[in-house]
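Sequence in, structure out.
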Amino acid sequence: MAVAATAGMIVALGVAIKNSDRAIAFQGSYCGQTSLPQGAQVVQVGASAMRNTITISYSTPDGGSGYLTVPFDTIAATCSDPMIRSVVTGAQRGHKEVIESMCRYVADVFAGRVSLPLDKVDHFDVNYARQWYETTCR
């Protein structure tokens, strides 16, 4: 518990010092002592950045099962349970990779390196795509 609390304070302090010249609030949820039951195994993970949730489905050695939900914006370093820390890191990394891939694809369409399939051209909203690209990818 002390290690998790110390890690959380170090992360928060580092951000506060780095941003001390700006009045930016530190974003992210603290994971702390959130943990899976003893011996539980992760069965499935569902993540939604938009809903700010990571739902972990797990099974226990005695045949039981359950769900645990942590915020998507959890700071993985603050999770004392290594399995939860791993799930949070993986979900956040996967989300980042999907966004980066979408950004590359839209950039390639705009640059003419990729052509949209003919059946998709009528459904591609260029104005929305430009706005999304500017706010998400830059």
